[in-house]
Write a structure and sequence with these properties.
mainly alpha; two-stranded antiparallel ribbon; 11 helices; 2 strands; globular
Length: 314
């Protein structure tokens, strides 16, 4: 069995595993990596970009090397190779947990339990929940669903198609490091610079594919494209901008605006402002369904792209 078919079967099985099982409650491989990365940080931390770059190289390089070693160990067996690809895909894709958390918050809001929604919001994103009313929580959830559809699903599938198991593990390592040290806290402003920039680079193709597929799978394809073209560049993140703008247009809502992280208030541009309406609790379920459709389409696109590329080189 060729490597392209191994990837196709393994990626499909891994995404199915995520749909059926979600993330494990204990011992998640990403959490294990996070603890290891935190240990590396304790050893290497200096308030300097160079030391941060070394931290990034050690952690990401280790993840890629682990994936390459595992793939090499099972390459003589097609069944074992498919199983390894499926396991790696399941480990790095987080679509089910994303949708589950979003829906939990949505049910709280629809039941009028704003305090319950505030209590659950930190499970999904880093916003300050006490600074948000019901509509603000709903907007935060939809924005998080959009951004994490790219980070937790589509980006992983893209790099899995490009680099196999090493690509899957490497992408999740980059994304996890960005969440850990890439934010601009005083401790990580310089130390996390390399991780943040590498995450921007690694997330670029997945973000654009996510934006395209949101337009294809959403309720308003023209609105999604229009919002993407008009507003994506206004967003401070080069990758969240296209994704959130496309989701906003596809759902017919306004995203962006004032938000608070860790006591720091940010005033972001409004996405899909002229055509969109304020986000409501009911839009969380719509965003969750759109995320699911985008993930399934991304699997088909990435597998097909790899098969086509293999056919051209053979």
């Amino acid at each position: 069995m060729g490597a392209d078919r191994v990837h196709a079967y393994g990626a499909a099985a891994g995404l199915l595993g995520d749909l059926l099982l979600g993330d494990p409650r204990r011992g998640h491989p990403v959490a294990v990596f996070g603890r290891a990365a935190a240990g590396v940080e304790r050893v290497l931390w200096h308030d300097h970009r160079g030391w941060g770059a070394l931290h990034t190289a050690v952690c990401v390089g280790g993840a890629v090397a682990l994936g390459a070693g595992a793939a090499r160990a099972v390459r003589s067996s097609a069944a074992a190779s498919v199983a390894l690809t499926a396991t790696a895909t399941w480990a790095v894709v987080g679509g089910t947990s994303l949708v589950r958390e979003a829906r939990t918050i949505g049910r709280c809001l629809e039941a009028g339990d704003v305090e319950g929604a505030r209590a659950r919001l930190p499970h999904l994103c880093g916003r300050d929940p006490q600074a948000l009313d019901a509509d603000g929580i709903a907007r935060a959830v939809v924005e998080s669903v959009a951004e994490n559809t790219s980070d937790a699903v589509v980006g992983a599938l893209v790099w899995g198609a490009v680099g196999g198991v090493p690509g899957l593990l490497g992408f999740r390592a980059v994304n996890t490091l960005d969440a850990m040290v890439g934010h601009r806290s005083p401790r990580h402003r310089r130390y996390g610079w390399a991780s943040a920039r590498l995450d921007d680079l690694a997330g670029w193709p997945g973000a654009r594919l996510t934006a395209v597929l949101a337009a294809v799978a959403g309720d308003d394809p023209r609105g999604a494209v229009r919002a993407w073209r008009a507003d994506a560049r206004k967003h401070p993140s080069p990758n969240a901008g296209p994704v959130e703008a496309s989701f906003a247009g596809a759902l017919g809502v306004r995203l962006g605006g004032t938000l608070s992280y860790g006591g720091r208030v940010e005033h972001r541009p409004v996405l899909n402002g002229p055509a969109g309406r304020p986000v409501a609790a009911r839009d969380i379920e719509r965003a969750a369904r759109l995320s699911r459709r985008v993930g399934l389409l991304a699997l088909g696109v990435t597998v097909a792209a790899r098969l086509v590329a293999k056919g051209r080189t053979s």
